[in-house]
Amino acid sequence: MLLRKASREKMKKLLILVFIAGFFYLFLKISNITQKQSQKSPPAFQSSYIILRQGSSLPLFGAIQSQRRLIGVSEILYNPEIELEARDYIPVKVPTISAPEQETNSLNLYSWTEICNKNIDSLIYHPLFPHLPEYKKSTVKLDLNIGKNTGVYLFGKLKPGMAGVYRFHALSTKIAFQVWLSSDENPSNSKLILHENLVRSKDLELFNSPYHISIVLKTGTSPGKFSLKWLTPGKKEYTLIPSNNLESYPPDSPMVREENLQKMMILDKKIPLRDMYDSDQNKRRALMFKLPFIPEEDIEGLFPKCNYDPSYLIKKKITKQYAGQWETHFTSVYPPDETDMVIYHPGMKDPHIIYGNPLLKRDVADFIVEKVVNAIKEKHKDKYQLKEILSVEQNEDDVKGDRYLVELELLNDQDEKTYRFAEYLYHPKGSNQLCYPENFKWNKTAEVNLIITSAGQSRWLIHFINTVNQIYKETNDENIAITIVDFDNKDTGVMKALKESPLKKYTYIRRKGKFHKTLALNDAAASITNPDAIVMQVDLHLVIPADFIDNVRKHTIQGRMACSPLLNRLQCGATPQHPTGYWEDEGYGIFGIYKSDWNYVGGMNAKGFQDKWGGEDWELLDSVLSHGFECERLKIKNFHHVFHSKKNMWNNLLFT
Prior knowledge:
Layout: H1 2-37, E1 48-52, E2 57-58, E3 64-65, H2 83-87, E4 107-112, H3 120-124, E5 135-139, E6 143-146, E7 151-158, E8 164-173, E9 176-182, E10 190-195, E11 204-206, E12 211-218, E13 224-231, E14 239-240, E15 246-247, H4 258-261, H5 280-286, H6 296-299, E16 305-306, E17 332-334, E18 341-343, E19 352-354, H7 362-380, E20 384-395, E21 401-412, E22 417-428, E23 436-437, E24 448-455, H8 458-475, E25 480-487, H9 494-499, E26 505-511, E27 513-514, H10 517-526, E28 534-537, E29 542-543, H11 548-554, E30 561-563, E31 566-570, E32 581-583, E33 591-594, H12 595-601, H13 616-626, E34 630-632, E35 635-641, E36 654-655
Parallel strand pairs: 16-23, 24-25, 24-28, 25-26, 30-34, 31-35
Antiparallel strand pairs: 1-26, 2-3, 4-5, 4-7, 6-13, 7-12, 7-15, 8-11, 8-13, 9-10, 9-12, 13-14, 17-20, 18-19, 20-21, 21-22, 27-36, 28-33, 29-35, 31-32
């Protein structure tokens, strides 16, 4: 009995020691976690670096300004006053990209997947064609099996080996194709020699010298097969072209650079978006950003100032989640902006019409314009003449009165130049007069910072950078900036694209960890130090017209109004040149607000949307409206979202 009692006492003491040791270990773990949390490291982020261009700044390092075109990736930016934040942004060295091995006796093979329609145009007009393929390979054999909804671009040099007369024969099953052959090595001299309705070429006299060749292939809902044969001098049967008669371009060749790929004759009919207008009237509207503004002193005092407090403003917090989307309304326009869209549904003979912006009645527009022109004449006599009504937008309020954005092209008889009048006016209900709404004037030179998040989408990031580059070149607008938060573990050309960009201001934040959109957007906004800059959320897969920045500026008013332009979601296989799709009426992912106002409303709800997807844009809208802001809704012509597969995108992506 005594032995059993002693044994129980030893066991009890042992259990107590184990309990104390476990408690002490748990205490140490909790202390360690608390210490890490006190360093304010974002929970979804593990490490990152930031690259800045000259003229941009990073608030997390205080008022540090870049004095170089590229802040070195091996440098550490440091500010002792905010040491803890700086630790989260230590730059790391960028790995170089080694060129993939490539067979010389071959053709370059670029491919794109998830592009609908067995139609060559659906590939040629795709924004990522021909310079941003999904896969870059080479093929030694012109006998190919291609999966469904896939586009392929083959190009390189054809080396006949002997002079003489040649013929070519294309064999295809369930595939659209075009074969182009140049008269020499220059792609610009190419001519179409084969297509679906012409499978055998005429006699072609070739010399013993290289010729540029390019082939475009496109499948639809079924896989396809394609082969190209030739009939060489003195032979009676067509044979596959041997690999020793082919030569591909190496990865470092100038021929595979974007600017040279874009010169290939296959793209000759790819009309640039900037040249696509339905009418001269729409062309003038789209290009009015190029007109100089009428001097401020010439419009000052044209109308008295008046109180502006629309009846539809939300005066209290929206308590029902996502209810804000029902508290906005669309802006009416004049002249008609031809924003109606069509969409094709399977099984329907005729397309369905998706209506664009509501039309403002002409007599209402004429009344407002007449008031403006008369006010200008009264102040300036015959100095200005009305040349063109560019746009009149109405924001209707049946209770208190309507707000207008009036944009006119005026001819100055003194210097014989044209100027742009673009001002907000208010027509109080029951009054016959117009007035300038108080504290409702748009900043014509405000910085617009396009912020974007990405995860494993480097091709689309490069496309986005190229798009903004083109806008910069067309507008000469020095107040365009971009901020990118990229969850990716590979250097796939994004930084190279930024280094070669003409943009004066950009910020690139690269992250590791699980993709977290709302936290990334807050991080992007936090990197913008200018409170008078517009923070404009955009999407990756966009085609953006040159007048987009101008539209953002004039529909975003500091302290008063955010803007959420509507884009057209293209159907699978539709292109900007041949758009079919629908307007994204319910989405608010394209959202602009001044940085000072972003801070005031609290930005994105990162905590509530850390582990779920969708609804974060409605949540932000609820917050913005609850703080007494308006949200302008206008459908922007030629502003497209390109269809893309959601395979392996966003959700649960972890980058290390």
